[in-house]
Amino acid sequence: MDYGQTIHYLYNKLPLYSTIGIKAYKADLNNTIALCEYLGDPQNKIKTIHIAGTNGKGSASHMLAAVFQQSGYNTGLYTSPHLKDFRERIKLNGEMIPQDFVIDFVERTKTFSNEINPSFFELTFVMALEYFAQQKVDIAIIETGLGGRLDSTNVITPEVAIITNIGFDHMDILGDTIEKIATEKAGIIKQNIPVIIGETLPSTKTIFLEKAAEKNAPVFFAEEAFKIISATPVSEKLEVEILPNNTAKTKIYNLDLPALYQAKNLRTVLTALDVLQNKYLLKEENIKYALSHVKDITGLHGRWEVIQRNPLVVLDVAHNVDGIQQLINQINNSSYKALHIVFGMVKDKEIEKVLELLPKNATYYFTKAQIPRALPEEELLQRAQKFNLTGSSYDEVNKALNAAMDTATEEDMIIVCGSVFVVGEVN
């Protein structure tokens, strides 16, 4: 097979959550364990950091990868989903996995895969493990796909586990209360392995403390370790003043991820780096440089990403209630004459709860990504009208964006959001 045929096999022969949703989800680790055993257990040959959470885990993963790369470590990074290229999911020192490795891996595992029928996520995660083991990484940052306890990534035993936050998403799988979702995420807490908790609610804090005690896992709450004094957008950066709990002197970090919500992710990352300092040489100057160049070092996209000015065009992958709330906070702290929102969602999200949050003063360009899970744009428009959101519908993302560009003046702002897949289709 060539690369095109290999990608076709991955997308069309394996159950893929991003296209068919819950039918692709395997509620156990059996296939992942079997694939790992078939390949000689690559997960046991590498050191890892495991990151779960409703929102922020992608940004936190890239921040950590940037710090380790800048500190001279051979660094693997596994995230999902991708925006444009499958190989974005698996990176070594900021470079995507080679096409040849993808081809070779699929050919080597094809016979066994046909026997056990893994999902797209199961096979491609094990591909990442095999690649990182072959490349002898010093550390691999592993982002969960969905949940934690039964996520394929939970076959690893990390140096540290991180749970960024808990919000409502994937309730058809993880449960319909914050407590149930927190319990699933807490499933990544391992025996004697430190765990970092980014944000808590009273109900979730109890769950994390109980699980950590059960596993004898040291637990660190980022909200207690660092206090955010201020977060100020400066040009295309975010200047964050932060106070460690063990000192009276504040520190300033200039993030190249300018959204206000990144201050919380920074706090979580700094807490993890503190815990890891006894195992890795992580100098402050390398940490600060890395955090101010995350996009350049790792290739992160889609987090309040400005792709044009006059009018200002911003891409953001916010797609659930918590993420949209953070995005609206950012919009409210931005200056513009008129607001245009290119918006699409997938069917299995809390559509009404998200629509209820969206600003009424914007002009909307409802659209859909070209995947089966996408909510039809005309249905989205009809549902949005119940919340006094006005606009038109477009059957392709770039048609919607072009319409917004034609309408907007130079002083306006255009936001593309609602789905990772919508953002990924922007030309």
From TrEMBL:
Functions in two distinct reactions of the de novo folate biosynthetic pathway. Catalyzes the addition of a glutamate residue to dihydropteroate (7,8-dihydropteroate or H2Pte) to form dihydrofolate (7,8-dihydrofolate monoglutamate or H2Pte-Glu). Also catalyzes successive additions of L-glutamate to tetrahydrofolate or 10-formyltetrahydrofolate or 5,10-methylenetetrahydrofolate, leading to folylpolyglutamate derivatives. This is Dihydrofolate synthase/folylpolyglutamate synthase. It catalyses: (6S)-5,6,7,8-tetrahydrofolyl-(gamma-L-Glu)(n) + L-glutamate + ATP = (6S)-5,6,7,8-tetrahydrofolyl-(gamma-L-Glu)(n+1) + ADP + phosphate + H(+); 10-formyltetrahydrofolyl-(gamma-L-Glu)(n) + L-glutamate + ATP = 10-formyltetrahydrofolyl-(gamma-L-Glu)(n+1) + ADP + phosphate + H(+); 7,8-dihydropteroate + L-glutamate + ATP = 7,8-dihydrofolate + ADP + phosphate + H(+); (6R)-5,10-methylenetetrahydrofolyl-(gamma-L-Glu)(n) + L-glutamate + ATP = (6R)-5,10-methylenetetrahydrofolyl-(gamma-L-Glu)(n+1) + ADP + phosphate + H(+). InterPro entries: Folylpolyglutamate_synth, Folylpolyglutamate_synth_CS, Mur-like_cat_sf, Mur_ligase_C, Mur_ligase_C_dom_sf, Mur_ligase_cen. Residues 51-270 form the Mur ligase central domain. Its cofactor is Mg(2+). Pathway: Cofactor biosynthesis; tetrahydrofolate biosynthesis; 7,8-dihydrofolate from 2-amino-4-hydroxy-6-hydroxymethyl-7,8-dihydropteridine diphosphate and 4-aminobenzoate: step 2/2; Cofactor biosynthesis; tetrahydrofolylpolyglutamate biosynthesis. The keyword Ligase applies. GO terms for cellular component: cytoplasm. The keyword Calcium does not apply. Signal peptide: none annotated. Belongs to the folylpolyglutamate synthase family. Residues 302-419 form the Mur ligase C-terminal domain. Keywords: ATP-binding, Folate biosynthesis, Ligase, Magnesium, Metal-binding, Nucleotide-binding. It comes from the Bacteria. GO terms for biological process: folic acid biosynthetic process. Its EC number is 6.3.2.12, 6.3.2.17. NCBIfam families: folC. GO terms for molecular function: ATP binding; dihydrofolate synthase activity; metal ion binding; tetrahydrofolylpolyglutamate synthase activity. It is an enzyme of class 6 (ligase).
